[in-house]
Structures are given as structure tokens and as C-alpha cells.
Amino acid sequence: MSMLSVGLVYRCKCGNYLRLNGLLGLALTLILMLACDDQGGPTENTSNDMNFMTQVDQDLSLDAELNPRDMMDLSLDMDLDSITESLSIEVYDPLPLVDPFIATGGLAAEIANVSPGASAPNGLTLIGPDTRKVVMIPPYHCAGYHYPDTHIQGFSHTHAHGMGVVDYGGISIMPRRAWREEYLSFEGRQAPFDHEAEWASPGRYGVLLNDDQTIIEIVATPRGAHHRYTFSDLPNEMNSVAAPVVIVDLGDNLESTSTLDSRISMVNGRDRGEFELYQRLDGSYSGRFGGIRHYAVMQVSPPPSLVQGWQDESTLLDGESFEGQQSGLVLSFPPGTSEVDLRIALSFVDHEGARLNLNSELPNLDLEARLDEVESLWRDALSTIRVRGDEQDVRRFTTAHYHALLMPSLNSDVDGRYRGLDQQIHEVDFNYYSDFSLWDTFRNLHSFYLLVHPQLQLDMLKSLIRMYEDGGSLPRWPMAHGYTGGMVGTPATQLFAEAALKGFGGWNQDVAFESSLAQVNGEAQHSTRKGGDAYRSLGWVPADEYSGSVSRTLEFAWSDDALARWAYQRGDLEEAERLQVLSRQWAQHWDAEQGFMVGRNRDGSWRELDSPLRWIEDYVEGNAWHYLWYVPYAVEDMIEVQHEGSRRSFLERLSEYWQRVYIEEDDLLPDDYYWHGNEPVLHYAWLASLTDAPNISVEASHHILETRYGHTPTDGLDGNDDSGTLSAWYLWSSMGVYPIAGTDQYALGSPIFDRIEIGPLVIKAPGAAWYKPAHAVKSAERAMSQSITTHEQLLQGLEFIYTAD
């Protein structure tokens, strides 16, 4: 039995974990023990603690465990600030700093839809429990898991991260200690569990089922998973040794999803223990293109003693294959079987691809080897950036980094084949990704990838280009192998333009520019700009013809500005000037009398706002306040239009706005003024920095860091993480830097860490503190703007300089 190993750490009442790192570590531990009025002693670190840590392979640095300022508070007569400011951050293992349970709960508008399941970085599979409490409420189970739930109905292999609609949940598997007839349904086979007997870390998930004491351990690979089930030796109801079963259900799993067709085939007889699975799953988004084709090859050891299944009707049949809209499989094992290993790999191409993935990633029954491999992948990914500061902040930062690497998802097999948006099979020599929630992620996630994970971002740019070549138009929200058309705008343009403007090469810029321009001109194969003809001819999207008219115009203008900048860089001045004119059409929605961006009818008449706080059809997922300043790429132009060029007037209104935000009560509903749980306002905290008033941005960004992010399952995020968008906001803002999508510029604030290292890039902020703006900023020993920097300057490193209070 391969239970997860546990480590021994010292935990005092204040919640700090410490390891004894030599005499200094011992001294500091004793001081902290005294300060906490705790008798001390080693405490076993068990799985129910949200800061669950397994045996640490290498000690964390002193600075990662104890913030120097905390030691100053303990009256140590040491000027540690002056020592640590000039020192590089010692290498530390990031894995114990990740808590996959953060943000897995939440209620109403603050539900994050995060699963603690097992995944490799940006893997095809995210394997985790699908939970329920009496019933499965769809909005709370977009990722299958909701922390307040009490029962697990199965472990499915595909989940979306932080998504606001229900989809995926493919190939559900559930082990049970003995067979019962009610196990033919999800409701009947659900098992109770407690969080005290549940654990997770990057790449793995485990839980104990309360009723039959079955232990489930799951370790992910990029395209599959190794399950190990350990069954108790308790007798069954007949006082005999139980015969364990493993149930594979290809029917409807998550609420609001349905299986369109499915098929199960045994390969080369029962003794081989190998099965081919197929499920075409229809969800809220995937139903728009005919469903997601899940192909899987599964190997079970030891081989089952009995194979039964069902097809459509809930009646068990003997056989070697089962097929129908709803089909399932029951594998029975000899009485007394204590352990079953199940290896499974998926493909969206075919069973040949799934088998190649299985043979490559899961070649044997060595679960510990798979764990080492996936942990190595995560360690490499999370070690690309290191920070030094308060321990709790470092943990939250590392967990945000982890969440930012759960989606988009790998879609190509190990042989390079993938199913394209045209539903045909293609082949590439790079990792092909899908599940791009671009309306969300264009704002910050892909900027983070470009800086911190450039190879990942390069493969994603290439993937988007292939999608255009395969399907005839750039996607806005591609899921697996289909267009969904989710949300509005043409945000892929900002990804391409930003990469080009930042000098990021290695991808076909000519085809990417062509694909972006086709959207502007209405020449794309799919209608990617609903209302685009009117936008070009009238100057706005008319509210009496299109819903979300204000949002559509503003989205199109942002993309056109990015494309215009890119055209200038390419030397296409005529196209750049045309696009620049289009990019200024956001101003057509400014109604000075009402003081907001307001919908206009085709005849030019204004729509009247009853209240700027009301959600009306002119705005996509928001109200007039949420779209008031939706021009971060041209703030000076926005001030000219809205305030006749008066920067003072703009900052007065912005300051008044933030004062309202600071006192707004949290009632689990979308916030009236600043709703951090959705995307349109994410740049608002940085607008003041873009007008050379960083003090306002520092206070606003740090207020959000403090109040919209937590360290528990229930308060981790302020809403849907949307493929890592809210996590990326935390990553950038805690570094005191925020990207302006579609440009090469960043707004500057104030880091919460005194040192940040991204490879050779170093951001230093000695003396950084909450709500404290920097006195000056230097790049490569040159003084620069306190509040704006370019990508080129950022790559030279930054130093935030603070004055004494």
C-alpha cells in the first residue's frame, strides 16, 4: 500500500510551520515558541490541515519560512533587512507551498469552480472527484468538486479550471469494496467522505471513502492517470470477505451534461485486463460543436475475475463489449483483493493515440515513479519564479502560480497528432493546446506565460494559428476540438500583437496578422464579430439590434488598437492608420450628459440609464460602472474624451470610485462598483499608475490583494478563476507590475515581496510594505517613471526605492 508519506514539522499556535535548519534555525524556533506561548514539540502534519506538507526533499530557505520583519517583531537585535536585500533567494522546493484546496468552495457569485484533482502542468487530464450534497447544483460543480459537499459519486478525467459553465466530466470511475445493485446509478454509488481524510498536492489526489474504508490515490500524467485503490479487509453484510469492484460509467456525469454515445470493448480477453473506452460528451459549451470525443485505453491489474456491463438500460450483462447512449462497466475482483492498480490514458484523436499515450506515460505499475515524474514537471514549472516575503503570501503566490497552469490544456498526443477545429486529424511538431478562455485570459494570463513560461506561450500562439488554418477563423473560446463562440470580442488579436510588440519570435506572424485582420474585415469563416459590419460603417454596434452592444464596441476597439500598433511595427502604415481610426470608436458610446459609456441605437439616439448599477442588455456580464474605463491602452485619449483632458478631474472621479469600493458590503452578489470576480474591471486598480498617480493604484491593488484573495477553500478567490485569470492577477499585482494587454507596457505599483526572481530578471523592493508607494523606480541603474515601464525595461530588472516613514 502506497499511502502518501507525511513529514514532521513544528507548528506553533500562530500557525507557522518550521524546520530546524542548524543552530540559527533552532534558536529562531525556540524564540517563536516562546512568543506564541506554546510548549512546542513535533506535530504530525496530517492531511486535514489546509497547509498539508509531505516530506520536504530539501529545506526551505530561512527567508521562505520566516519573514525578516516577523523576526524584527520578536525583538531580535539583527538588521536582517539590510542583509537580505542584497542576497539572492535561496533555492526552495515550491511543491509544499501549494495548497490545491484553496478556492475549492465559495458561494453564489464568489464560487471559483476549482478542483483539487490531479493534473500535470497544462495537462490534457485533470482527474478529480465529482462531489455532491444531496443533489449536484450545476453552477457549483462546473469543475465537478465543491468543498462543502459530503459525498463523492465518481472520479472523472477531464475538468475545466475555473470555468463558469458546466462541461467535461468525461469517463467517471468509482471503486467500491463490494457490489450492490444500487451502484448502477451515480446517486446509488456515491460515498461519504471527510476532508480530514482527503489530501492533494501538485499532480496527485487522495481520499478515504468513509463507508467502506476504500483508499483512492490518483497520480496524473500529462495525458492520463494512475489510480491505486486499497480496499479494507472488513467483512461485508454476509460476514464474508468482500469482493471489490471498479465501476466505469460513461453516462451523464455532471449535471447539465449528457452522453451522446459511448462504447466499451475488452481487448484480447479478460486476462489481459485492458479495455478501450469511447464517450462523446455534450456540455454547455461542447454541445455547440457536437460534443467532445473522449478516447481512452485502460489497463487494470490484477485482471478482473468477472466483467459485466450495461448499455442504456440499468441491467447488468455479461460480455466483452457494451455500446449505447449510456453504457458502463463493472469489474469484479476475487474476494480478499486488497489493492487494484488502474492505468488510463486519454486522447481526443483515437484509441491508437490513447494507447501510445499510455505506453509512453504509464509504462508499468510503479506509482511512485509516476509521482516523481509529475512532481518533477511541477517543480520545474513552479521554480521559474521565486519570491521572498511573508510565509503566508509566499504560499498564496505559489498556489496562484499552480492554478495559473491548469488551463489551457494539452490536446496533442505523444505522436503529435490532434483533432482540429475542423474535426479532422492533423499532426504538429509542438505541443498543441486548446481550452482557451481568451475573453478572460488575454488580460493577464498570457502576458504572464510570455514572461515566465515563454516556451508554453510559444506553443499556444502556434496552436491558435493552427486553429485558424484548420477551421478558417481565429477562435474566441475553443474547447477541445471545437468552436464554442463563448463571450464576445476578438481577444486572440491582443495575444499576437502583444507578443510581436515585445519582440517575442518563433511563430508565423504573417499568418497571425492575416487571421486577425480577417476578423476586422468580416472575412473570417465564422462570425467572430457579431455587429462588426455596423461597427465599421456606423462607428458603434447598435443597441437596438445587438445585445451587449457597448461591450462589443469596446472589445473590438481594444483589439483594433493592438492590431494597429502591430501594423505600425510591421511597416504597414496605411493599414495601421485605418485600424487606429477604428480603435477610437469606443468614444462613440460616451454620453457626457449621463457620464457613462452608454448604448446607442442605429439612428444615433442614446439609451437611458435608469441606474448605472443595473445590469442591462447593453453590457456583457456587468453594468455601466464596470465598462466606464474600458480603455486601458489609451488612457490619455479616454481622459480627453471624458474629462476634456483634465487629469485632475479624472483622478478625482477615480478616487471617489475607490472610496465607494472600499466601503461596499460583500453580500455574495456581483459587486456594484468593482466586481473582481469578473474580468471587465481587472485593470481598474492600475488606471491611476497609467496617469502617473501610482499612490492610488498601490492602495487599490493592495486592497484587492488583501480582501479578494484568501488562504482557505471558501475565501480563496472572489469568483470564477476563469482558466487562471484571477490567479494571474494576483501574481502580477503582488509583484507590483501589471500588463496592459495588446501593448508592450506595464503599470507599476508596489510589490508585497522584497525580492522577486524570474530567471536572470530581478525585481527588488527593499522596504516594501502594504499601501506604501515607491519613491522612485530604477531599471538597469537608470531612473525611470514611477508608474509605467516597457517590456524591454522590465527585462533589465526593476528596483522600487522607498523613503523612510
Label the CATH architecture of the domain at 108-379.
Answer: Distorted Sandwich
* Morphology call: globular
Q: Flag low-confidence runs.
A: 1-84
User: How many β-strand runs?
Assistant: 37
> How large is the radius of gyration?
27 Å
Spatial sequence of strands, sheet with the most strands: 4-5-6-8-9-10-11-20-15-14-13-18
CATH class of the domain at 108-379: Mainly Beta
Task: Describe the sheet with the most strands.
Answer: 12 strands, antiparallel
Rounded to the nearest angstrom, the distance between the terminal CA atoms is 58 Å
Mean pLDDT across all amino acids? 89
By secondary-structure content and strand pairing, the structural class works out as alpha+beta
What is this structure's SSE topology?
Elements lengths: L7 E4 L5 E2 L3 H14 L6 E3 L17 H4 L2 H6 L6 H5 L33 E2 L6 E7 L18 E6 L15 E5 L9 H4 L1 E11 L2 E6 L5 E7 L2 E7 L14 E5 L8 E10 L6 E9 L9 E10 L4 E6 L1 E6 L2 E4 L2 E6 L6 E9 L3 H11 L5 H16 L3 E3 L2 H13 L5 E2 L6 E3 L5 E3 L5 E2 L3 H4 L3 H8 L1 H18 L6 E2 L2 E2 L8 H10 L7 H12 L11 H6 L11 H22 L2 H11 L6 E2 L4 E2 L37 H9 L3 H17 L30 H14 L17 H10 L2 E3 L5 E4 L6 E4 L2 E4 L11 E4 L2 E3 L3 E3 H5 L2 E4 L4
Parallel strand pairs: 33-37
Antiparallel strand pairs: 1-2, 1-3, 4-5, 5-6, 6-8, 7-12, 8-9, 9-10, 10-11, 11-20, 12-19, 13-14, 13-18, 14-15, 15-20, 16-17, 16-19, 21-32, 22-25, 23-24, 26-27, 28-29, 30-31, 31-36, 32-33, 34-35, 34-37
Helix pairs in contact: 8-20, 10-11, 12-13, 12-15, 13-15, 15-16
